[in-house]
């Protein structure tokens, strides 16, 4: 999995952003530039940021064959302490 080399902080409140999900596709419809779109969410203010990371053709095809387009690590997200507390307060469990 692609991972940032630094801590991504929320530009609004300064909280550490948490990886939410990613997807693989083209930069624009019809484009031949393949990207992995990485979504990060702030557990404090709910801001969502996404980053388009360019992929080489061979790596793109390898990832695409493994995840078939999109992978949502729902359990990873729910296991984050601040997210668990927030979801609990919203009545999820
Ligand atoms: Zn924030």
List the helices and strands and how they pair.
Elements: E1 18-26, E2 34-41, E3 48-54, H1 57-67, E4 70-71, H2 74-79, H3 81-89
Antiparallel strand pairs: 1-2, 1-4, 2-3
Zinc ion binds next to loops.
How would you describe the overall organization of this protein?
The protein has 93 residues and is α+β, with helices and mostly antiparallel strands. It has one domain. Helix content is 28%, strand content 28%. It is built from three helices and four strands; from the N terminus they run E-E-E-H-E-H-H. It has helices at 57-67, 74-79, 81-89, and strands spanning 18-26, 34-41, 48-54, 70-71. The chain has a four-stranded antiparallel sheet. The protein is elongated. The model has no long low-confidence stretch (mean pLDDT 85). The site of zinc ion has 8 residues, from loops.
């Amino acid at each position: 999995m692609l991972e940032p080399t630094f801590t991504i902080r929320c530009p609004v409140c300064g909280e550490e952003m948490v990886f939410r999900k990613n997807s693989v596709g083209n930069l624009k419809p019809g484009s031949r530039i393949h990207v992995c779109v990485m979504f990060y969410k702030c557990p404090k203010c709910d801001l969502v940021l996404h980053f388009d990371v360019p992929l080489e053709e061979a790596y793109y095809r390898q990832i695409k064959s493994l995840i078939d387009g999109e992978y949502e690590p729902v359990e990873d997200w729910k296991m984050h302490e601040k997210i668990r507390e927030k979801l609990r307060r919203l009545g999820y469990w």
